[in-house]
Write a structure and sequence with these properties.
heterodimer; A: alpha/beta; Urease, subunit C, domain 1; TIM Barrel; 5-stranded parallel β-sheet; 11 helices; B: alpha/beta; Rossmann fold; 2 domains
């Protein structure tokens, strides 16, 4: 089957027709025809987004999300590939578990689900997980992370960085020194934590680990990726490391680009996330770093939680926020509407660079003849109200509820097949 | 006023009205028959997620002297560990037909959070390291009794400010009532962002008590220092803490004659306070306890009988 996207604007440029034939872009030009016509006038055509950081909760917490429901949320958010973090139950620390997640992704058929393997056995931070077996498995794992926990032992981190080199894989670090920010730390340490009496999570707990890790990456000549960078100080360390030629990449979440710790005044745990929301100055630094490329990618850290895991006192509620379905809207509001990024920049930070970091073939390619047809059509002039009850995710913990966000995903194509049409899930096999 | 969640909920008029009502309540404490009728038929639940003997009994006596039915519910241990959400626990208790919940919780903000889920009155009896507004009211009551007025009085609060709900509520309420506050603690026990609070701060107790730092002192309030803070690395040893920040007999002598000593209890004698300070003529520790009942009667009365009602004693 062939599909013509009529009048689409690749990367926000000059409108043209784009012909998808099979799973590739077959032709770009005017007056193209195909089996199926999609009216894309006024829409921006982008490479399908690649998320380096999601929690799909399967196996273990299927009451909050499954690979299928998380895939649906991802497709609706314009994603064509997502990385599923390893902190499932059981932990994704063997070839068997990562292959299970990978197969569930194929069964769902809405995005390419790329499992992330644990760095350490059971995420315990003591002994390496079976990294080689996961890398060599059918899931072909290329990103390893103990996300949710920091690989805080310097020797283990060093070994992990060394060990993944034959697989061209990357260690994605959740930077949080557990001695400076323990499991109870839940509020940016500063005026707000002092006033509210909440355990502080100081910026230095993140920055000191990143500083150590970039030196380890240099020493081992290996690849380091920093998850969910949240402070201006972290940005400075990463900028320095990149200037020095160290192989370090970094991501920022949509929520850290928009929300600040000033939202914690009512102790509503929908705003509880790890790392915590930071003051406005950090938000500004993160936006600037994403704009200048110091931060390479936007990654959602999509973290579904049941309401009964959030209906607690702030300190006792679960960490995490939904992100897949609102990611583009938040990026459009914080980066595009502000003039910090154009659509080509959005494509670079949400698709091209994350695909390169995680070595995801077929994603993040140029909008050009011969590229894999993993694509997203966005209406830059549409806006929408975030209604938690209308999300495809099985959970409702969006911090953006009630906000109106710009730029709506209209259609998503995975390997040439529509997964989303008219901003709703398409019946792929119809 | 529907609930009392934070000392910041009280403006000067409201706080003064509570203290004035408490004066009348205080009068019945010396009577043989300690019972007033205004809350007859009303039900108050003391919902305590954290152990507390003095605050719970104080609220219990206050409710009973106003003729309310008072039930104590211990919900100790986090609801998380029991598998029940805070919301479920609270809605279950509230559904029994409760007029007021008096809540103590080990987590900051928990009381504010649960107040948004129920229709009844809620009194914060201490939430984590956040606030303890009735403690601040009883401290203000005690200080007003001793000093006459709080206007331009200089109150020094000493100890583990970071983890103290008493300090947070007192800074807010004492400022509302016109007093000046200085907080004294080692840097490790001084909260982040304290420079934005409406008070002055110091690391040096001697300089502060002598009046050299911020002027003459009218009262000093010592806070309890939990011994587990030592293992958290906040200070090296009890000995060093006592030497640096304890209210020793020598430090008592730095105070002007009129300045009283307060402590919310329970006291660590020999650590933050010497027995000479705790038991001496300056000590208002037992006055504070007595004021606690009167102030809590006043709060419950104003919440449940309405602020327009006059109490007839």
């Amino acid at each position: 089957m062939s599909i013509v996207l009529q009048g689409a604007a690749p990367l926000g440029g000059k409108p043209t027709d784009v012909l998808i034939d099979g799973d590739v872009i077959a032709e770009i030009g005017s007056g193209l025809s195909g089996d199926r016509i999609v009216d894309a006038h006024g829409l921006v055509l982008l490479p399908g987004f690649v998320d380096l950081h999601t929690h799909l909760r399967e196996p273990g917490r299927e009451d909050t999300e499954t690979v299928a429901t998380g895939s649906a949320a991802a497709a609706l958010g314009g994603f064509t590939a997502v990385h599923a973090m390893a902190n499932t139950t059981p932990v994704a620390d063997t070839a068997e578990i990562v292959e299970q997640v990978w197969r569930l992704g194929i069964d769902a058929g809405l995005v390419d689900v790329r499992p992330v393997g644990a760095v350490s056995h059971g995420l315990a931070g003591e002994q390496l997980a079976e990294i080689g077996n996961m890398a060599r498995s059918a899931a072909r794992v290329r990103v390893f992370s103990d996300d949710g926990r920091c690989v805080h032992d310097a020797r283990l981190m060093r070994r992990a960085l060394e060990y993944v080199k034959p697989f061209d894989a990357v260690i994605a670090q959740h930077a949080q020194d557990p001695r400076l920010a323990d499991a109870t730390a839940c509020c940016h340490e500063g005026e707000v934590s002092g006033r509210l009496g909440l355990p502080g999570w100081p910026a230095v707990a993140e920055e000191s680990i990143i500083a150590r890790d970039v030196m380890l990456a240099e020493h081992t000549n290996s690849r380091l990726h920093v998850c969910h960078v949240s402070t201006g100080g972290s940005v400075e360390v990463i900028r320095w490391a990149k200037a020095r030629g160290i192989s370090v990449t970094a991501e920022v979440t949509p929520h850290h680009l928009l929300l600040t710790c000033d939202l914690l005044g009512d102790y509503d745990p929908v705003f509880k996330v790890n790392p915590p929301l930071r003051p406005p100055a950090d938000v500004e630094a993160l936006r600037a770093a994403l704009a200048d490329g110091t931060i390479d990618a936007v990654a959602t850290d999509h973290a579904p939680h049941a309401s009964h895991d959030k209906d607690h006192a702030f300190a006792e509620a679960a960490f995490g926020m939904l992100g897949l379905e609102t990611a583009l809207g938040v990026v459009a509001e914080t980066m595009v509407a502000t003039g910090l990024l154009d659509w080509a920049g959005v494509a670079d930070r949400m698709s091209v660079r994350p695909a390169a970091i995680a070595r995801v073939a077929g994603h993040g390619g140029p909008i050009a003849v011969g590229s894999s047809a993993n694509l997203t059509l966005v209406d830059p002039s549409a806006s929408y109200l975030v209604d938690p009850d209308r999300l495809a995710s099985r959970s409702r913990n969006t911090p953006f509820a009630g906000r109106t966000l710009p730029a709506q995903v209209v259609a998503t194509f995975l390997h040439g097949e529509p997964t989303v049409l008219d901003s709703a899930l398409a019946t792929v096999r119809a | 006023m529907k609930s009392l969640l934070s000392a910041a909920d009280l403006d000067r008029d409201e706080a003064t009205a509570i203290l004035d009502t408490a004066v009348r309540m205080h009068a019945i404490q010396t009577r043989e028959v300690k019972k007033l009728p205004p809350l007859r038929g009303r039900t108050i639940v003391n919902l305590f997620f954290e152990d507390s003997t003095r605050t719970r009994s104080s609220f219990e006596i206050a409710g009973k002297w106003l003729s309310a039915d008072v039930i104590n519910v211990s919900a100790k241990g986090s609801s998380v560990s029991k598998g029940e959400s805070l919301r479920d626990t609270v809605l279950t208790v509230a559904a029994m037909g409760v007029d007021a919940l008096v809540v103590r919780h080990h987590a900051s903000g928990a009381v504010q959070r649960l107040a948004s889920w129920v229709d009844c009155a809620v009194v914060n009896a201490g939430d984590g390291t956040h606030e303890h507004p009735t403690q601040a009211l009883l401290d203000a009551y005690t200080l007003r009794n001793r000093l006459g007025s709080l206007d331009d009085r200089h109150v020094v609060i000493v100890g583990d400010i970071t983890h103290s709900r008493v300090a947070r509520s007192n800074v807010l309420l004492l400022r509302t009532l016109g007093a000046r506050v200085t907080l004294v603690a080692p840097p490790t026990l001084m909260p982040s962002g304290v420079s934005t609070w409406p008070c002055t701060t110091s690391w040096d107790l001697d300089e502060t008590l002598s009046g050299k730092a911020f002027g003459d002192v009218d009262a000093v309030m010592m806070l309890r220092v939990q011994r587990e803070r030592m293992s958290g690395g906040y200070f090296p040893s009890e000995r060093e803490y006592a030497i640096g920040y304890g209210l020793s007999p020598a430090r008592l002598d730095l105070l002007p004659d009129h300045a009283p000593v307060l402590h919310p209890g329970p006291m660590n004698r020999g650590l933050e306070i010497s027995s000479l300070a705790a038991d001496g003529p300056r000590s208002l520790v037992l006055d504070q306890v007595q004021a606690g009942v009167a102030v809590r009667m006043a709060v419950l009365f104003r919440l449940l009988a309405g602020s327009g009602e006059e109490v007839s004693v």
